[in-house]
Write a structure and sequence with these properties.
The chain is α+β, with helices and mostly antiparallel strands. The chain contains eleven helices and 35 strands. Strand 32, helix 6 and strand 33 form a beta-alpha-beta unit. It starts with 26 loop residues before the first helix and ends with a helix.
Length: 643
């Protein structure tokens, strides 16, 4: 395979220039929207659609593959909405996932919820439509089939509000009008939590969760929907139904099954036989599945060791992915989109010196050429090194972690100011992949410690389960032990340490500050939980989702009000005397703004506490102006208290 040079036919230097120089890039280089956030190639291979900022807004831009200098068509959404991914329904229609917030009537009055929708853009005319526009309360972006036998239509599914509650339903949706027509209504009401469909859009199986009977079952489409398999479900469902293979004759299950790691299994809908399909290298969980864009059948998966990696079940695609990976120097390659005949592909790359790049591969010419970069204004030499490390917990568990080293430091860092940055979730994990926030902090001269404390995902069931009932306890111990290890090893200056986090990570930062050890110089929380009692109460009152409630209870435990308040920063604000910064999106529906305001009331205007409420944005702070505000306030706060 040959690697072509950067040609004008494939990339514009004006669009995708990369800065150079030794000086740390400005905050905007990290906190702005990625210059390329997602790319998909049309089924016929003639056009590309990119998710990228246009005039400071999330937008989709359509280009011909022979000319990426000028978009053929651009579609954007208002400031109140975000776009998160793009794909093609056919050679004409682009699909984009759009989300924001909306108000819905509940028994307690009008409440705000996160809303996910799909938008269609006609690449020829520029006409755009929000799909399911005629369905009141629609809150789904899930495309289940491209309906190959029905022109200009797709099949969408999700939970819809009815007079009898939320039920799972399917709609055939016209891409040119946005209107949907009900195609299938769940036969088991609120117990149905998922459906599987053939490539032609016919329902082949459903998954039911009877929380009272503690049973999860899969039933195949047929007279009375006969049960194919069932599992006991004391908490959340033990498996996920993630797709189909063999034209819908089998469904793909993702779960732990008999081992410690998450694997893929195939369930034959006629015989009920469950057979192995795929597993990641020893010790790693399968994260996500990869689907054929045109049939929605499972064809691969991703897993994470230090970085996210992709593997295909199809030998042709896996061979091609591996060859491209070798041609690009061995950094992890993901094939993210390909034409129907597989002759043209788009791949994404992240590596030790790659903050995220996209490349175009033509199998006919065997040419591989760059398309664009996620963060073009961060020079290669300013990408901070991320090292995979471990440390021991106080109860002798090995805790994996990542240490990000300022670009100005070579060798082993010594006596450095350090920011401990626990991840959210809490069932999530950090990797060595480029993360704008840790890279931004490191660029300002701080070592960044990201501990994957017990309860984190990706390391197997035993490690995850070790976090159960330990929301504010052993999980926080692990973070404290990580800080102590960095001090003991001489990496961190014990007099210059700050805790920063987002979501559960914001809670963890505040919970760490509630303790006497380690001694912190400051603490900052972005959309962090301050009242654990209210998070549990909100889940039970508003969501009514047994699976989510059981998941939350797994981590929090069946704690009394006294115990819940005992682990809540809002109820223990007197213990946090370090300079404290809370930043909160006013429209956050994951962690409501009441958490920040409650903490502000609890501290009664104390001089060491600053609470910043950012209007018009939510939990993820994806608006360019608010994310930049978050970055500026955090870096200013750290400079004030760690330098």
């Amino acid at each position: 395979m040959k690697v072509s040079t950067l040609t004008a036919a494939l990339v514009s230097a004006a669009l995708f220039s990369c800065a150079s120089g030794a000086q740390a890039p400005p905050v905007e280089a990290y906190a702005g929207l990625p210059d390329v956030g997602d790319i998909a190639i049309s089924p016929d291979g003639s056009r590309l659609v990119m998710l990228r900022p246009v005039d400071g807004r999330h937008a989709v831009a359509v280009y011909g593959v022979e000319d990426l200098t000028t978009p053929q068509r651009v579609g954007s959404v208002g400031d109140e909405l975000r776009m998160v991914d793009v794909s093609w329904a056919d050679d004409t229609h682009v699909l984009a996932t759009v989300y924001g917030t909306g108000e819905f009537q509940t028994s307690d009055g009008m409440r705000t919820y996160s809303v996910s929708r799909a938008m269609s853009l006609d690449a020829n005319t520029g006409d755009a439509n929000m799909l399911l526009r005629n369905v009141p309360g629609a809150n789904t972006s899930a495309i289940m089939s491209l309906l190959p036998g029905e022109e200009n239509r797709v099949l969408m599914a999700g939970f819809f509000r009815t007079s009898s509650g939320n039920i799972f339903a399917t709609y055939r949706v016209n891409l040119n009008s946005g209107s949907g027509r009900e195609a299938f209504l769940s036969a088991d009401g609120p117990n149905t939590i998922d459906m599987a469909y053939s490539p032609e859009g016919e329902p082949v199986a459903r998954m039911d969760h009877d929380a009272l009977a503690r049973v999860v079952s899969i039933r195949r489409n047929g007279n009375g929907w006969p049960e194919v398999h069932r599992w006991e479900s004391v908490g959340r469902p033990p498996v996920d139904m993630v797709g189909v293979i063999n034209n819908g004759a089998s469904v793909v299950l993702r779960g732990y099954f008999e081992g410690n790691n998450i694997v893929l299994r195939a369930l034959d809908l006629q015989s009920g036989a469950i057979t192995p399909l795929a597993s990641a290298p020893s010790g790693h969980d399968i994260d996500h599945i990869v689907e054929i864009p045109y049939t929605m059948e499972v064809i691969g998966y991703t897993y994470t060791d230090d970085r996210s990696r992709q593997r295909f079940l199809d030998s042709e695609l896996e061979g091609r992915r591996a060859a491209i990976e070798g041609a690009l120097g061995g950094d992890p390659v993901h094939i993210i989109s390909w034409s129907r005949d597989r002759s043209r592909m788009v791949v994404s790359v992240q590596g030790a010196q790659d903050a995220g790049s996209y490349h175009f591969f033509d199998a006919n010419s065997m040419n591989l050429a760059p398309i664009g970069f996620a963060y073009p204004n961060i020079p290669v030499e300013q990408i901070a090194e991320v090292r995979e490390i471990t440390f021991g917990s106080r109860d002798n568990i090995t805790i994996p972690a990542f240490l990000t080293i300022p670009p100005s430091i070579s060798g082993t860092p010594r006596n450095m100011p350090m920011v401990v940055l626990p991840h959210g979730g809490p069932e999530a994990r950090d990797t060595s992949d480029f993360y704008w926030l840790s890279q931004l902090i490191a660029s300002r001269g701080y070592v960044v410690l990201q501990p994957n404390f017990r309860g984190s995902s990706g390391y197997g069931a035993n490690f995850r389960n070790a976090g159960y009932t330990q929301w504010g306890h052993a999980m926080i111990d692990d973070i404290a032990d990580g800080v102590a290890a960095m001090i003991s090893e001489g990496v961190a200056d014990p007099n210059r340490i700050c805790a920063v986090g987002w979501s559960y990570g914001g809670y963890a930062a505040l919970a760490l500050a509630m303790r006497d050890e380690p001694a912190l110089d400051c603490v900052a929380s972005v959309n962090g939980v301050t009242d654990v009692e209210s998070i549990v109460g909100d889940a039970q009152r508003d969501l009514g989702d047994p699976a989510f409630i059981n998941w939350l209870r797994s981590y929090v435990g069946n704690a009394s009000q006294e115990r819940l308040r005992g682990m809540s920063p809002m109820w223990n604000a007197r213990l946090i005397t370090e300079p404290t910064l809370l930043i909160q999106g006013e429209e956050d529906t994951n962690v409501p703004v009441s958490h920040a305001r409650g903490y502000e009331r609890a501290t009664r205007g104390a001089s060491h506490v600053e609470v910043v409420i950012l209007p018009g944005d939510d939990h993820y702070m994806l608006r360019p102006d608010t994310r930049l505000e978050v970055a500026r306030r955090l870096t200013s706060f750290l400079a004030q208290h760690l330098n």
